[in-house]
Amino acid sequence: MAHTAGTKKLGSWFPTASVAKAAPVEGKCTILLFYHYCRPELEKDAKQRLIAFLQDTTGRLQLGGRLRVANEGINSTMSGTADAVREFADALTNWAAKAGKGPFLNPTPDYKYIDDLPPDRAFKDLKILPVNELVFYGVDEKHAPLVNGGTHLDPKDYHQKMKENDTVIIDVRNHYEAEIGRFDGQEKEGGAKYIDPKMRKSTDFKQWLAKDETKAELKGKQVLMYCTGGVRCERASALLNTEMGKDLGGIFQLQGGIEKYLQEFPEGGHWQGKNYVFDKREAFGVGNLAGVGGVVEGGKKKKEKAGKGLSEGVLGKCCVCACEWDRYIGKKKCYTCGVPVLMCSACCTLKPDKTPGKELTVRCPLCVQQNITVPAADVQLTDNGVGVSISKKTKSDGGRNRTNGKEGEGKSAPSVCKWGGGHAVDKKKTRAVKTFGKKCKLGDECTRSACYFTHPKDAKAKANEHSKRPHDSGSAAEVTKKRNVDTTVEKGSNIDILSKVMLSAKERKSVSQPHGDKEQKISKKTKISKKL
Ligand SMILES: [Zn+2]
Ligand SMILES: [Zn+2]
Ligand SMILES: [Zn+2]
């Protein structure tokens, strides 16, 4: 039974994306990775035919994954059974051959298969995302023609090159990926010098390359480049060659990326730490190619609290307590630039990201080094997502929303990641509208922190608020929060006890972390609780 690939809006970034449910994989799951640049680029109708073919075939084979399709080609991570993903690859190759004239898939893409994974590593849906660039560098074919790209070396040859003198190795991934694993084992043995451009996103590469100190560091050197699967090196090496190829002793890129290298060198070779991946494996290391898959093993919390490392070979650190930690769990993001941050499970339970006054402890190492203090939420993307500016809203209210106070103080990150293209915000709005005025089936027992439904207590709380503070506008969200301080609850009931517990937690917070407006609100609540 084929799933139907309807066209669904996925936020403002992907207005024409299609999303379809994928069938759950039983038994073992296989991940298929491939990318392909079409030269010359596809015409618009050719791209549409390719998308239609992809929708049909992935639907028929019940595959999950992410496919980015542009005029310049296709970049994909897919999941399914071992047979299904291979059937897809064959079908795509055959279809491209039959499509006849034009640049489709010639030569055949380098299909990479990761077999024998647990079934939960499969994607739950399949997204086809029409994009302008396969990797968003903000650099086009005119300024960095792919034909100028670095020489491809297979993992064995690349491994040898890493041992050579006068050689540097550029990590073309983002800093948060490099933090937990990278090629720097060769450096201790006199091999290639590791260079991390410290990017928050790929658009930073162009800026990094334009710096004088970068040019000085690379001059006269043989340059190796690598990334996860190889695709990010294509345009990056073309740009490097175009900008300063004459001053270099050659540019080489790792064919198939870290994925292929670790298949060829199961002992790790020059690789240290874990390979961050953009699928359900999360990150994988030597000896565990299936990855950690979002699972945190129980019973380790005490150990971490004591500041002991989990095991040898952990390269990262928790952003809050600095214990050895290399897991991106809980979808924690840097408060000031939005990149994923490492937070240990013990720190996660304390929710520093949701604690007023503690937000700045949740920053990535780059923001800490660069002393960035303006929240990512107060920064707008400009220049088609490449640049940033501090948002007008923040300026007009004098910057009161900022932790560091007045406008003009503090520095914003040079680039900021915004996630989901506004999809999450849209979803939230839709939910709020759909549920407006409807009763919560949990009634007054509801303890959800941001429940959009109405509760009998909401009305009473609102009435109470109005009688006490006639000028308070009492937004729905505020009223919902104030349910916890309703004075009409029965003494000793669950809600009564719960509200006392919650209030005492808030009182503690207000004592230890005084924080402007919030502190005043909390002290009002405290008075109410004393009346109880
Ligand atoms: Zn921690
Ligand atoms: Zn940051
Ligand atoms: Zn509710």
From TrEMBL:
Domain of life: Eukaryota
Comp. bias (Basic and acidic residues): 394-410, 458-472, 479-488, 505-522
Basic residues biased stretches: 523-532
Residue ranges occupied by any Rhodanese domain in the UniProt entry: 163-270
SUPFAM superfamilies xrefs: Rhodanese/Cell cycle control phosphatase
UniProt xrefs under SMART domains: RHOD (SM00450)
Any one Pfam family match given in the protein's UniProt record, by short name: UPF0176_N
Region (Disordered): 389-414, 458-488, 505-532
Name this protein carries in UniProt: Rhodanese domain-containing protein
Organism: Sphaeroforma arctica JP610
